[in-house]
Amino acid sequence: MKFVLMVEDNALIGAVYKKKFSSHGLKVEIASSGVTALDSLLSNSPDLIILDLMLPDMDGMQLLKTIRAMPEKKNIPVIVFSNAFNDQVLNEAKDLGVVAILTKGQTRPQELVDLVSRTLGTEGQDCDAPTEESLKAELRQKVLASFPTNIGLMKEALKSFFDGNDLPALNTLFQSAHALAGNTGLAGLTQTSRLLSALEAYTKTLHSKPSQINFSSDRTIKQAIDFLTPVFENIDRIENVLLSKRQALVVDDQEIALRAISVALEKVGISALYATSAADAQAISETTPFGLILLDVEMPDMNGWDLCSHIRMSPIHRTTPIIFVTTHSDIGERMESAGRGGDDFIAKPFLNGELALKALVWQLKTALNADVQSS
Questions:
Q1: pTM attached to this predicted model
Q2: Beta-sheet pairing, 78-82 with 100-103
Q3: Which of 63, 266, 351, 368 has the highest local Cβ count within 10 Å?
Q4: Do the domain assignments include residue 129?
Q5: Where is the domain boundary, 181, 202, 237?
């Protein structure tokens, strides 16, 4: 019997996958922390390791590097199963020879089971596995029953963080988002999990880089957590949002900025059209509807504020959310942005995680409002 070690700190996810893998004829051990996983590896030789990179006690990459440095364990195939957003970390994992990198919130349980079976050569050993739909229905009921409590805990942690710039409170926010992102993904709540995964990744980054905490980051986190209540109250509407049909328009004359924004948006499933001049953007926006517009302020042919005013004159963009992505971040510039029709702002240089989270919140919020108004 093949032996799988799953490094997963979420008890619900661990229990579900243990049952799922066992029903496919595999021996499974769940290690709830990096330290527990290392202890297991000292006395066992699993045939495959499933590794979450977001662990409470040890960085997942640190654990992976440790495994690759162990002479008798270095060739064990590893599947990364995580909501990690950091491209540098994911590329590092690829360089260490992992079999695959799967995103928790976007991966169906059967997809992971099939990949494990192919890797181990155990296809066809199905037993009495629960059906995908019955599993999702059961998990959805459990997850939604606890959702209000979890939102309450996150709001309490946010208040503690704001009261004293409290890093332990920020870590509590990360842990709560981490758990809820995994649970909603497992329950098939794809869009909700996508949102929570973005919040998880961003709070994790801020906890490790507290120098990046500022007014903009506080605002972005609060927006995301405040939006969780309407998400819960309109869960079916949120899950039916098709981000692929809500393209964003990004306007910036700097190629480096465009690439950074592109990477951030792709992380949360938002496709975009890019314009390098205000003139091009104005022409495009007159005939093409967008779900979100991101504008640089300083451009050579027309500044972003004037462009925003022009875009707002178009009937198809009177309510489209517009975010200024700019080096201007003082109170006067923020007031100017709002006065010209902007909905929000993010200051350069920005963390990809912040832009990804902010953009996703605005996309989902606007889609939800439109759906409610049309019904």
A1: 0.86
A2: parallel
A3: 63
A4: no
A5: 237
pLDDT at position 301: 81
Helix (H, G, I), strand (E, B) or coil at 164: helix
Calpha distance 22→204 (Å, rounded): 32
Q: What is the pLDDT of residue 74?
A: 94
**Which secondary structure element, helix H or strand E, spans residue 50, and what is its range?**
strand 48-51
Say which residue the tokens 């079976």 belong to. 117
Residue among 297, 284, 202, 196 at smallest CA distance from 247: 284
Angle of helix 109-120 relative to helix 132-164, nearest 10 degrees? Answer: 110
Q: Are residue 369 and residue 246 in the same domain, yes or no?
A: yes
Helix, strand, coil % (nearest 5) of the chain?
60, 10, 30
Amino acid 110: pLDDT: 86
Burial track 174-186 (b if 16+ CB lie within 10 A, e otherwise): bbbbbbbbbbbbb
Do residues 132 and 28 lie in contact, with contact meaning Cβ atoms separated by under 8 Å? no
Low-confidence ranges of the chain (pLDDT < 50): none
Any domain includes 13: yes
DSSP letter (8 states) at residue 272: E
